[in-house]
């Protein structure tokens, strides 16, 4: 009896641990953000569309319960044992996620760092995300234009642990510096990409300083929503604001004239095109050695997933803008990055 | 024979748990408004009061559990699940606000009772059970929402979160006052409140005196769940959105405010007034860091250090009173 139990247990263990090695030949993509956040919600539809359009075995959106590196790592290991062989990962930590990414790659999976980069050297094929610095810079330029080229700016941004945050702070400062002192960034409020702290800190700031600023730029999702609501509550259209992303609160505030525009990112395109590229790599395509990689502070293999400014005219049709960016991104991979047999 | 030590009126005043945090709060408010007069503007009083109202109800939810010498790590995940359930049933099923509210509060009570029941039945540490609860409730939350907010908050609920009841004072203060009065009444006038404190102070003695620890633990967790649910609903009204991440950042405030207010983490001693001023201190410090443009990378350090300082002041007061009592007992 004991022998039978041991044999059964052995078979079970073998089945579990062999799963990644003898996985289904079809590409099974897991799209894993660092934690729950509305920015990544578009990944779910992107995965579903990619699965249908490219006949993938799966392209599932899997969210860790919290923004904790350990939780994300455990989820990734669990997905590997479930037979997923391709991963789009937002790194919970630019360095800390490297070890689990290496584990995935050692077991035959492919990894693309998505929406955020791993620090070189890393086992990821490349990093696909918004050029956050450039997006913040362009957004700041739009804000400065709306302010008439002079005034004082407050910058509300995201998690301090996110390496993109410092890039955004620097980019907004750079845009202000280019005005030769006509525009000043008078305050940066960070670590507020969660509703409650964002609400408390942004409102506290506006209560004390609304009369002392001329513009607001937000470079994270939740602060954009909260700042748009705050300006609506105060009823202040004198203060110009450029937000980020496509939350319906921000889009509505643009329609109503409380916000001047938003820097759209392309999370849908990241999930859709990322899944496509992973499938191509599994089917034998290689990344061209002379592909036009960009560089950022973390990696020399960066691909910009696209960003575009949407003002009151463009906001109602922002979905079309994102579809257009996604199509361009896929074409760019086919033409410049992939070498297929 | 030593006479029982009698405190004078001043010493009696300083014997209250809330007096230390109250003094610190007043000093902080006066200092900040000296440097930044807009701190006492109508809008800022509204903003500050709204933050205090929600955080007080969160802190009360933890205070009840601290009273029995336990901790509730699931407080935020209960609040988050209640928040998305409250908005979700209204948005998806068109359920009227009062029924959705009753449903949401009921979920909070049930989740609290479930935690309490498992703790009472198994006598496994509340830390472990509520840690498991945190994961389970958060998992359900994310399973329902896929990390996507619910936007269908009715105008009446939004108005409640944004309107003033008197001058610059927000409507949100009303549920806070009701919750505070309710918890104070429970601890000071109701048998269950005294049972909670007795169980927290000395479980063995409480059991010998006829207190049923199982019933007391389940009650405490049910009340905590109700308060977490109330805070979740208040936040929906305040934020005007059913965000799945509501509750993620409650843990530090929920412990810091009661401890600043003189609560003993091992149980048996709590203060509703002290907790209120603990909440005020945290809210004022948070605002001051924004108003005085503290480097964002230093904010966490400054906040931690100031909380430590406030707790230190309270502890110093306790030591001085104990010393005075000891001296009195020797005379």
Could you please describe the fold and organization of this structure?
The complex is a heterodimer of chains A (341) and B (331). Chain A folds into two domains: 2-130 and 267-306, Rossmann fold; 132-264, Rossmann fold, CATH 3.40.50.2300. Helices cover 46% and strands 17% of the residues of chain A. Chain A contains eleven helices and 14 strands. In chain A, strands 2-1-3-4-5-12 form a six-stranded parallel β-sheet, with helices on both faces. Chain A has a six-stranded mixed β-sheet with strand order 7-6-8-9-10-13, with helices on both faces. In chain A, strand 3, helix 4 (98-106) and strand 4 form a beta-alpha-beta unit. Chain B is mainly alpha-helical and 331 residues long. Chain B is 74% helix and 2% strand. A two-stranded antiparallel sheet of chain B has the order 1-2. In chain B, strand 1 (164-166) and strand 2 form a beta hairpin. The termini of chain B are close together. The chains are: A alpha/beta (341), B mainly alpha (331). The A-B interface holds A 33, 36-38, 40-41, 44, 61, 63, 65-67, 160, 186-191, 194-197, 199-201, 203-209, 222, 225-226, 229, 233-234, 248-249 and B 36, 38-39, 41, 43-44, 46-48, 50-51, 54, 135, 138-139, 142, 146-149, 151, 162, 235, 238-241, 243-246, 248-249, 283, 286-287, 290-291, 293, 296-297, 299-300.
Topology:
The complex is a heterodimer of chains A (341) and B (331).
Chain A: H1 2-18, E1 28-32, H2 41-54, E2 58-61, H3 69-81, E3 86-89, H4 98-106, E4 110-114, E5 127-129, H5 132-146, E6 151-156, H6 163-177, E7 183-189, H7 195-209, E8 215-218, H8 221-234, E9 240-244, H9 248-255, E10 261-264, H10 267-282, E11 286-287, E12 302-304, E13 308-311, H11 318-337, E14 338-339
Helix pairs in contact in A: 2-10, 5-6, 7-8, 10-11
Chain B: H1 9-14, H2 19-35, H3 42-67, H4 75-93, H5 97-122, H6 126-145, H7 155-162, E1 164-166, E2 169-170, H8 173-189, H9 191-201, H10 203-208, H11 213-239, H12 251-260, H13 272-291, H14 299-330
Antiparallel strand pairs in B: 1-2
